[in-house]
Design brief:
single chain, Ribosomal Protein S5, domain 2, Alpha-Beta Plaits, 11 helices, 4-stranded mixed beta sheet, alpha+beta, 2 domains
């Protein structure tokens, strides 16, 4: 039995610019996980997780499931991952052993909150299949493959940030400069010790689930059309990322002002729902910094001490939001 895991991703700074030749810093954390189990079999079989059950106690039960997880689950992700990996191996003259497998997956990552739950499932599946077939793929290339599963095969909008963080499994500074991407096919990725990071919290509300494809598809169109405000925002997010990277590298953990600025720039170019603004306001009213971890529904920020964290929890509880201290992978 092969068992692999991949974890949710939180963008600390720079998002959403990773799909537009920007820069970002992100990490994965162990509070939730996507897990894959794979073993050899006479036939190839994918076993869905509980979230994809077709048995419901009532119409309202079905409605609640759709609101929280959407219409599409992980089976399509696994199918696309198998297809993408097999095609990559064929293109690079990597012969896969003539054997089949049963793949079972499960995920505890809250869905559709900008935590990269879909790419976590794909990443875990890719790692399991690589072990099964005894093949090795360089991390930058593997991140590209995980993105191709969603973007090329399933036409889901997104960028490399999630996949890079999940493949490396450590906090990563990422530079997606176009000249770099054109020259080598991937960006500059520098993983670093999570001890460099300040006190970080993450808060979320499941009833704000929307799906990153909605945000990314709109941004993609605007970027392609040369939207001046968006392009200017991307340049500002790049500068913020470099400033955070410089501070952390120099042992300066005071980055809350830059995290706040990241969100304020976002608000100036992207419509923010009332529910998402409530999250940001609740965090900032406690003294903490706040920005989205991804597309919306979950926020991330810094806090100074336990007293501020307790106030943060109180404010979030008042709006039916959950707060955690992310256990950052290293």
């Amino acid at each position: 039995m092969i068992e692999t895991t991949a974890y949710p991703r939180a963008a600390l700074i720079g998002n959403p610019s990773d799909g537009y030749f920007g820069k970002t810093i992100a990490f994965t954390f162990k509070n939730f996980e996507a897990r894959v189990e794979l073993r050899e079999s006479g036939v190839l079989q994918i076993i869905p997780c509980e979230r994809e059950s077709l048995l419901f106690s009532s119409v309202s039960h079905l409605n609640d499931e759709v609101k929280q997880y959407g219409y599409y689950g992980g089976v399509r992700l696994i199918k696309a991952a198998i297809k993408t990996l097999s095609e990559y191996c064929a293109e690079h003259n990597i012969k896969l052993a003539d054997k089949n497998f049963i793949l079972r997956y499960a995920s505890s990552i809250p869905g559709r909150l900008g935590l990269a739950g879909s790419s976590a499932i794909i990443t875990a599946a890719m790692k399991a299949m690589m072990q099964f077939y005894g093949i090795d793929i360089a991390k930058p290339v593997l991140a590209n493959l995980v993105l191709a599963v969603e973007k090329k095969e399933l036409h889901i909008g997104g960028g490399l940030q999630d996949r890079v963080a999940q493949v490396y499994g450590r906090p990563v500074y990422m530079n997606f400069d176009k000249s770099l991407m054109d020259a080598q096919g991937y960006g500059e990725y520098i993983s670093f010790d999570p001890m460099l990071l300040p006190n970080i919290y993450l808060a979320y509300r499941n009833n704000l689930a929307e799906g990153s494809e909605i945000t990314h598809n709109d941004l993609g169109k605007r970027f392609a059309n040369g939207d001046a405000a968006l392009i200017d925002a991307i340049e500002k997010w790049k500068a913020l990322t470099d400033e955070v990277w410089q501070r952390l590298s120099n042992g300066n953990k005071n980055i809350g002002d830059l995290i706040d600025r990241n969100f304020d720039i976002r608000k100036s170019v992207i419509a923010i729902s009332q529910g998402n603004m409530e999250l940001i306001s609740a965090a900032r009213n406690s003294g903490a910094s706040a920005k989205f971890t991804g597309s919306g529904g979950a926020i991330i920020g810094t806090y100074t001490d336990d007293a501020m964290y307790e106030k943060l929890v109180k404010n979030m509880t008042a709006i039916n939001a959950s707060v955690i201290k992310p256990i950052i992978t290293e």
